[in-house]
């Protein structure tokens, strides 16, 4: 699985009408997901070797039962949490 590319499509005004879409790079390709369809997500920090960038495995669960899995850098995890208004201390 490759490192994720996290893109936010739309904005806060769009969220009330169509939602905010994020794109996650998974093993199957680039997936666009409406954040309003996300029921839960799990973060698992991966062990890294000295001088390697911290990586987190993120599993995204949709209301439909579909599950996406991707890797994120520390910066991408912070952006991801910001979408859901989650701070480090609240997880």
Q: If you consult CATH, what is the topology? A: PH-domain like
Q: Number of DSSP strands?
A: 6
The CATH architecture name reads Roll
Order of helices and strands: EHEEEEEH
Give the strand content. 35-45%
The protein's oligomeric status is: single chain
Helix content: 10-25%
Separation, N- and C-terminal Cα atoms? 25 Å
Kindly give the count of domains.
1
The low-confidence runs, each spanning 5 or more residues with pLDDT under 50, are 1-5, 9-17
Element layout with pairings:
Layout: E1 7-9, H1 12-15, E2 21-26, E3 29-34, E4 38-46, E5 55-62, E6 67-73, H2 74-83
Antiparallel strand pairs: 1-2, 2-3, 4-5, 5-6
Report on this model:
The protein has 91 residues and is α+β, with helices and mostly antiparallel strands. It has a single domain (7-90), classed as PH-domain like, CATH 2.30.29. 15% of the residues lie in helices and 43% in strands. It has two helices and six strands; from the N terminus they run βαβββββα. 10% of the residues are buried. Mean pLDDT is 77; it is low at 1-5 and 9-17.
Please outline what is shown here.
This protein has 91 residues and is α+β, with helices and mostly antiparallel strands. The chain has helices spanning 12-15, 74-83; strands at residues 7-9, 21-26, 29-34, 38-46, 55-62, 67-73.
